[in-house]
Amino acid sequence: MERVIVLAGGMSYEREVSLSSGRRVADALKQAGLQVEIREADAALLPLLMEDPPDLVFPVLHGAEGEDGAVREVLGLLGVPYVGARPDACRLAWDKPTAKAVFRQAGLTTPESVTLPKTVFHDLGAGAVMKAVLDRLGLPLFVKPTRGGSALGASVVRDAAELPAAMIGCFSYGDVALIERFIAGTEVAVSVLEIEGEPTALPAVEIVPLGESYDYTARYIAGQTEFITPARLSPEITERVRETALAAHHALGLRHLSRSDLIVDPDGVPQLLEVNVAPGMTETSLLPLALHASGLTISQILTSL
């Protein structure tokens, strides 16, 4: 293998994050002596892939076009090998309520939630629907779009008066909301990589945002969040979160790499929130932090993948 195309950018809300991740992946692969090009997923891509196919494509697209399986489906049609999950597995992970159903079927614990489209609030009356949600789930709540990442449109609701604004913020980024019971506890991320063909859980990264929540600013602005690797968990709970991430990876049918986001509740139970099929690779992203804690270099691992 000599020539690799890294796909980055796109037109999602996470474009800038994707470009930053793409540059870091490209630099890591170049360090291994590979010829690397960064390309957009635009109208020029398919002619390039058909006329001068690379040995491999490494998708680092965040948001819909990078994580819903569509671009990977097209790569499969062209017979171009790529790193990461196949389209069907991407579709399962991309839709958070569907992924939560898969988690439960696999015996994993995930916060109780309801999924409601914007039209329900319009047709049935926003006040009545929100009251029903509060009566069922109580407070506090966590509201987020059913599809998307980087905590865009997501917010914590600690008072009933905050719920209308949270719904408006959520619907700014998607037409369907996932409203979860908020779980207090230790927030961790566990990345899974296939090392020598075997899915392996990296050390858990503990996330301690300086603000109220791990929002977009806390994720990508240096100094806004403290990351502790390995996470301050007992050996027993460390093993639980590791097993949960591996089980989620298998349950969704993923391959090569993934990142599971979890909250360890006060009882020591890992509550699985979601799984990302295109983990960020920026300077403040969680997978590279876990690699560093493992004594592995990003160039070594990405080249292996």
UniProtKB/TrEMBL annotation:
Q: In which pathway does it act?
A: Cell wall biogenesis; peptidoglycan biosynthesis
The record, for Pfam families, names:
Dala_Dala_lig_C, Dala_Dala_lig_N
Q: What is its main location?
A: cytoplasm
What is catalyzed by this enzyme?
2 D-alanine + ATP = D-alanyl-D-alanine + ADP + phosphate + H(+)
EC assignment: the record states 6.3.2.4
Q: Does the keyword Cytoplasm apply?
A: yes
The EC class name is ligase
- Functional summary from the UniProt entry: Cell wall formation.
HAMAP family the UniProt entry points to: Dala_Dala_lig
Q: What name does the UniProt record give this protein?
A: D-alanine--D-alanine ligase
State the organism named in the record.
Answer: Actinocorallia aurantiaca
Report which gene this protein is encoded by.
Answer: ddl
